[in-house]
Amino acid sequence: MLLASSAVADVRGTVRVVDGDTFKMGSATIRLHGIDAPEGKQTCTRKSDGAVWRCGAWSAEQVRARYEGRRVRCQEIDRDSYGRIVGRCFLNEEEINRTLVQEGYAAAYTRYSRRYLDDEKGAIVAGRGIWSSEFTRPEDWRSAQRNAPPAAQVSSSDGCRIKGNISGSGRIYHMPGQENYDA
What we know:
Layout: E1 3-5, E2 10-14, E3 16-19, E4 22-25, E5 28-32, E6 35-36, E7 44-46, E8 52-53, H1 55-67, E9 71-79, E10 85-91, E11 94-95, H2 96-102, E12 107-108, H3 117-126, E13 133-134, H4 138-147, E14 163-167, E15 170-174
Parallel strand pairs: 5-10
Antiparallel strand pairs: 1-2, 2-9, 3-4, 4-5, 6-12, 7-8, 7-13, 9-10, 10-11, 14-15
Helix pairs in contact: 2-3
């Protein structure tokens, strides 16, 4: 159940974690203000051994393990261009946004707020979470993905125009005329 109080613009409800910096509560989507978690497909390279790991998926898993199904309160600060609530969320007195940066599950998103910069510095010094690795800031990673050249087209000698992807969740096929075929 989602309750909204217009006097203080609070949203209260049970959390469903979408990713490392986004929650769903009932029909509301909450983008956590001032933080930016690695994207689901984003990878990082461990400083200790050079291993590449899926830090975006890891971030979402950590946030899910900690907050999924918990009742929280979020203070609406703004709305983003997607219509999502942008807010600070609390589990009892714990500010979730701050905790995620302190634990290294997300970075401070200084484009929108400098509130969590000291928390990020602490996580960097301690080498917690994503800061144990070399990685591209999520904002820069998203930009690089948008600006990447399209994948090379592979033509089939038998005229088959079906495209396919293999991901962690299975195989996806795209046929001419489908929504994501050109992507």
